[in-house]
Amino acid sequence: MKGYFGIGIEGPSKSMNVGTLFRTAHAFGASFVFTLRAQYDVRAGALADTSDAPGSVPTYRFADLDSFRLPLGCRLVGIEITDDAIELPTFRHPRQAAYVLGSEREGLSPGVQAVCDYVVKIPTRFSVNLGTAGALVMYDRLISLGRHAPRPVGEGAPTEELDQPVFGEPMYKRKQRLRQKAQSKQ
After folding, report:
1. Which residues form the tRNA/rRNA methyltransferase SpoU type domain (predicted)?
2. What stretch of H or E contains 182?
3. Three-state secondary structure readout of 40-70
4. 92-127: b or e for each residue (b if 16 or more CB lie within 10 Å)?
């Protein structure tokens, strides 16, 4: 899959949820994880993060929105239940993205929502656990941007193999000019 993604949380109230989110991000191949306005207890988070994501994935801590930074070209995608949010199944993920979830109690602040390029919601009847929401977003990114065999029409596993990419012989300008000369002489 081309591109990269990172995921983080603004103002979490439970360190275990941050640990779960970071562990899941590590499993899905996140390029980085972050906290924003967080009082994150690393020891408590480590109880849920058995993969030690901060030891394997770049981890950033931003004290406030003014200090928040993303790589050039990276789009910020907020995950929040709002009336005007895009439903996740209809959202096309940016190739370079950072996803941010809000705190368990308050959600994403208006300030963070204002700097998001997109705000996406998971179409559920009510709010789900922070770690679950993050996992759903990362899984949706994987199945929509990754290379997978097509789903079968009926139940069960795919009946078709994933097509392997076919590459032709490299075409160099010199060979191209020689072929054009030979064709023009004929």
Report:
1. 8-139
2. helix 173-185
3. CCHHHHHCCCCCCHHHHCCEEEECCHHHCCC
4. ebbebbbbbbbbeeebbbeebbeebebbbbbeeeee
CA angle 41, 138, 134 (to 5 degrees): 40
Reading the chain (186 residues) residue by residue, the pLDDT tens digits are 789 999 999 988 777 788 889 889 999 999 999 999 887 766 666 666 677 777 888 889 999 999 999 999 999 999 999 999 999 999 999 999 999 999 888 899 999 999 999 999 999 998 898 899 999 999 999 999 987 777 777 788 766 777 777 776 665 666 777 788 888 887
Q: Does domain 4-145 have CATH number 3.40.1280.10?
A: yes
pTM above 0.85, yes or no: no
Which residue carries 């204002």 as its tokens?
114
The structure tokens 């770049």 sit at 58
Let me know the angle formed at the C-alpha of 96 by 123 and 146, rounded to the nearest 5 degrees: 65
